[in-house]
Specification:
The protein is α+β, with helices and mostly antiparallel strands. It is built from three helices and six strands; from the N terminus they run ααββαββββ. The mean pLDDT is 87.
């Protein structure tokens, strides 16, 4: 992968940035079927566990993830939200995905781009408990499929190794 970031003024940087903002809106509005259409068939969606001890402050634990999902498992989660068995989301969370510091790089494969961005998720469960904040960096591989950008890989590096949220029922 090239380390040359695309300029903020480039058309492709703007397209990727807009894709991330639209995705955030779709997730906040719980339009999950539409979100699934934004993913490739071979999606890899993971959140590795961060290490917070020296000298590995920026590292992750190999083989340890808060979640490591594919299209099948993501679809199962979406399908469950449409039932009365989604107890972790009853009542549904209100979320706001704040995407910032977007940097876009050429991808390793033709038609792919690497998008790094910072993410702050605010989550409230009506007024039943204190709101949650989840913060970290996303590393997304976006791939052009039939002329449309789709998410092929997401790795979310959360800033905490011990999460202060009751569960991870929301999508990052």
């Amino acid at each position: 992968m090239s380390t040359d970031m695309l300029p903020f003024t480039s058309e492709h940087h703007h397209e990727v940035h807009q894709w991330l903002v639209v995705e955030a809106e779709i997730l906040d509005q719980r339009r999950y079927a539409e979100w699934m259409d934004m993913l490739t068939d071979d999606i890899v969606y993971r959140m590795p566990v961060r290490v917070t001890t020296s000298p590995h402050l920026e590292g992750t634990l190999d083989g340890m993830d808060h979640f490591d999902e594919d299209r099948y498992s993501l679809q199962r989660r979406v399908d469950r939200f449409a039932t009365e068995h989604a107890w972790t989301e009853d009542p549904p969370s209100r979320t706001r995905h704040f995407v910032s510091n977007v940097r876009v790089y050429p991808g390793e494969q033709e038609g792919e781009s690497l998008a790094k961005s910072y993410l702050l998720i605010f989550r409230s469960r009506l007024d039943t408990r204190e709101p949650d904040f989840v913060v970290g960096e996303r590393r997304d591989v976006l791939r052009r499929v039939d002329g449309v950008l789709k998410l092929a890989r997401r790795e979310f590096l959360v800033d905490e190794s011990v999460l202060r949220t009751q569960n991870l029922a929301v999508f990052v």
